[in-house]
Specification:
Elements lengths: L1 H10 L7 H7 L35 E2 L4 E3 L5 E3 H5 L3 E7 L9 H14 L10 E7 L7 H7 L1 H4 L9 E5 L4 H11 L3 E3 L6 E3 L3 E4 L4 E6 L6 H17 L1
Amino acid sequence: MRVLKKFLVFSGVAATLPALWYTLMAGQAAPTRPFSDAFTPHEEFQFDPPKPGSYTLNRFRTAPDGRVLDVNGQTHSFAALTRGKINLVSFVYLMCGDENGCPIAMSTLFEIHDASQKLPGLREDVQLITISFDPARDTVEAINSFSYPLQIDANADQKLKWHVLTSSGMADLQPILDGFGQVIDRSNDQEVINHLLRMYLIDREGVVRNVYGLGTIDPRLLITDVETLLLEESRS
């Protein structure tokens, strides 16, 4: 219920260097704690995230390309959007009512987006991406309305950039879904879309570095993986 409530509130209408770099950019003292300390632990996650940089993230595959539409109806190459940034990617549909589905993904990204204001400079290296897999109903107008809270956020320039995307139809969307292995199945009445909850971490080169599912979509874990990628870059 917590995630569903935050999801509804959010919808409104329906570095190349580790943590030290970000703190120095803000003119603060050197950090002694990881990025994950910017988040309040949730009771459903009874674990502490690992120390950033204490592990290596796998390189699974190159993320797929395809044509997507932004909230203004502009066409983009998905691959081009992801290059040069570390990306946290989610697939959702706006009418999803499954508390163990899209609302968790959106609530998690919203929490990361809000907390990123406490991590100055992170915006230069990391971004959030949400793609609808229901282009027939999640039109440009629909995602524009959905993302309205982001557009009017007075502190948006201090937080991570968040791309909310749709597509012109399944012909453009399907190659992206297939490339990620994101399976969807419409119910007989075409209203409900059955799917497995998944989120993805993509590095600057467009390589998928981690995949998250139900039980691991903890904002502390996701941001720790992001910090680990930044540390990896600083050592290379």
